[in-house]
Design a protein that fits this description.
The protein has about 350 residues and is of the alpha+beta class. Helices cover about 60% and strands about 10% of the residues. The longest helix has about 70 residues, at about 125-195.
């Protein structure tokens, strides 16, 4: 009679080995058939880097706004704290004065007035003293009122200082975040640039150098209304900085970001304008038609108004473009974002 034995199952170890070997073969086949990953070329890297620089500039304007707010809060807090210190000194003087009045009243009012009158050798002299006593009492009430007013004033000042200190702490936190964001974008851009070969880096640098040089040497005013007055003085000041490098958060004189250049230029003309592009957009008459722009007008780009320059005529602006560039002339059509409007300061 034939025996019915179950076929012997392969050991778990052997199954694992066979499975691993099959997977390795499959992976090798897939790797052989897959298209090799291509390293991004110079053109692609430049496009990505330009986008990162644009994002860094957006964050830079937010950073500038937080920094400006921080400086403003610090000045306001310092003023309030000075007021509180002076107010406390005034309060101390009022209290000292009240103490003197109370002492004088106690000394002159320690005996019943009828007894004082009876004992007085000179009734007229006593009546003079009694009149002075009444006057001291009135001064005491007035002093108390002044003290109460000063206490309320100091309490309000201290409460205001406390709120501004909270706001300052939040602003410093925001400032740190925006700084970190800017540095992150710039670091990412640098890592991309580091993927290029030495020859590609050299070619890219040569392109940028030619762009900076040609734009700085060439600007045709055409039919543009020439700059005059303070706008002309601001434009001339900006022209003197052609070739100066862009650095985020910088306001001159050795480096600038976009709004740093415009605020510095107008300051040289004796006009104080806000620090950030967003704030600068709200300081004068808006001009929506490019044909109505005059040399020296502020010009704003991108939907969030994160870039600003000075109109130079013939569809060109004078500005600090972005990291890796210098202050230069550039066609408005090559900014990378739409022209939104101009502002005549």
């Amino acid at each position: 009679m034939a025996s019915h034995r179950r076929p012997k199952q392969p050991s778990r170890t052997r199954v694992t080995v066979l499975t691993t070997a099959a997977a390795a073969v499959a992976l090798s086949a897939n790797a052989a058939n897959a298209a090799p990953s291509e390293k991004p070329g110079k053109t692609e890297v430049k496009a990505q880097v330009d986008k990162l620089y644009e994002q860094a500039e957006q964050a830079t304007e937010k950073y500038n706004g937080a920094k400006e707010k921080q400086e403003k809060l610090q000045k306001e807090i310092s003023t309030i704290q000075d007021n509180v210190a002076r107010g406390q000194q005034d309060l101390n003087k009022l209290r000292d004065g009240l103490g003197s009045l109370a002492t004088a009243q106690y000394r002159s009012g320690g005996i019943d007035p009828s007894v004082q009158l009876f004992l007085s050798a000179d009734p007229d002299d006593y009546l003079d003293k009694a009149s002075t006593l009444d006057q001291l009492s009135g001064q005491q009430v007035e002093a108390l009122n002044k003290i109460q007013d000063k206490q309320r004033e100091l309490a309000q000042d201290r409460a205001e200082a406390t709120e501004k200190l909270k706001d300052l702490a939040a602003t410093r936190t925001e400032l740190g975040k925006k700084k970190k964001e800017v540095q992150g974008k710039l670091g990412e851009a640098q890592r991309l640039l580091n993927t290029l070969t030495a020859k590609e880096k050299q070619a890219l640098a040569a392109e940028q150098s030619r762009a900076d040089r040609s734009s700085s040497e060439r600007v045709q005013l055409g039919n543009a209304v020439p700059a005059s007055g303070r706008a002309g003085a601001a434009f001339s000041a900006a022209q003197s900085k052609i070739g100066t490098p862009y650095v985020y958060g910088a306001t001159g004189p050795s480096s600038y970001d976009c709004s740093g250049l415009t605020s510095w230029a107008y300051a040289q003309a004796g006009v104080s304008i806000p620090r950030t592009s967003e704030s600068q957009a709200n300081i004068g008459t808006r001009i929506y038609s490019q044909s109505d722009l005059q040399v020296g007008d502020l010009v704003f780009f991108f939907n969030d108004i994160h870039h600003v320059g000075l109109y130079a005529g013939n569809g060109q602006i004078l500005h600090a473009p972005r990291t890796g560039t210098v202050v230069r002339y550039e066609s408005m059509s090559t900014i990378g974002g739409p022209f939104m409007f101009g502002v005549r300061v």
